[in-house]
Amino acid sequence: MSIVLPELPWAKDALAPHISAETIEYHYGKHHAAYVTKLNAAISTNSELEGKSLDEIMKTASGGVFNNAAQVWNHTFYWKSLSPSGGGEPTGAVKEAIEEKFGSFEAFKKAFSDTAAGHFGSGWAWLVKTESGGVDVVGTHDASNPVKEGKGTPILTCDVWEHAYYIDYRNSRPGYIAAWWNLVNWDFANENLAKC
């Protein structure tokens, strides 16, 4: 069973002007696709991986196999965290959970942006549901994610690897993060929270 590069949930130019079609072409078409290719190459030479789902591989593997599996998983989740009709303030259960934890959406937005912008090197910023039932903001390094690290159930993510923004924002991670807020898919966040 090979791992397949998933279809994007929107057209490559749908996130413009916040994220360009050129960025999507490189980020999805080159980087995400390369993780899928490398993971499939690893599966083809390791009988222990054959027949396992992406989730199973990501949760149990280590080293390069984990890095590629997690990057496939993380990017698939990231694309769903974005929507051409997204942005604005959250609604429903996510809004309530955010306000309960952070006091206000603005306080949450600052905490999330600070985690994303202040992350040293490559990685991810996540909104997660914690084991205690609330929500929190966590950062993970490189390919890692909250599932692997036991830091909660992912609700939403922002990719802060440089390949997410170098074409549109050069070295301005804060500029990219500010634009990311215009695309946040709160419907996806509410769906994830409801599954927890």
UniProtKB/TrEMBL annotation:
It is an enzyme of class 1 (oxidoreductase). GO terms for molecular function: metal ion binding; superoxide dismutase activity. It comes from the Eukaryota. This is Superoxide dismutase. Residues 5-83 form the Manganese/iron superoxide dismutase N-terminal domain. The gene is Fe/Mn. Coiled coil: none annotated. The keyword Iron applies. Residues 90-191 form the Manganese/iron superoxide dismutase C-terminal domain. Homodimer. Its EC number is 1.15.1.1. Its cofactor is Fe cation. It holds the Pfam family Sod_Fe_C. Mn(2+) binds at H27, H75, D159, H163. Belongs to the iron/manganese superoxide dismutase family.
